Amino acid sequence: MDRENTLFLDLKDGRVVIELRPDLAPKHVARIKELVRQGYYDGLKFHRVIPGFMAQTGCPQGTGMGGSGQKLEAEFSKEKHVRGTCSMARAANPNSADSQFFIMFDRAPHLDNQYSIWGQVVEGLDLVDNIKKGAASRNGSVEDPDCIVKLTVAADVEE
């Protein structure tokens, strides 16, 4: 494991290990690591969770409308959105990704070449499956959502 390019996502049920993909999205990986090292994601809600699709987090307001204030240029790749893929959320503008991201529950070909993939869950996908789901009638909006307990770069964690 390359600890500098591995994230530990601590959830209520345990630790998820995410392998970062700087080969696909170097600017996104660098920005995510910067935010992680600032503690930006700690305590943030999984505000939009759609069963069979994805779990989204990274909004400081917990509404899906906020971010860190620093937009990123798209880094689309030929990589596919499959189970465990970590990818950036964005608005209609391809260059509007900021701090929000999602983790895929399943394959979603309609997202391929449309969103910047920056990582892959390599351990703990069953814990991601346990994230509280939202109502389909409310576009996945979650009542009393689960939160990120802590998100850290593995190189910064003593084990």
UniProtKB/TrEMBL annotation:
PPIase cyclophilin-type domain: residues covered: 14-156
Give the GO biological process terms: protein folding
| Known EC number | 5.2.1.8
Keywords from the named record: Isomerase, Rotamase
Q: Which GO terms describe its molecular function?
A: peptidyl-prolyl cis-trans isomerase activity
Keyword match Transmembrane helix: no
- Name of the protein: Peptidyl-prolyl cis-trans isomerase
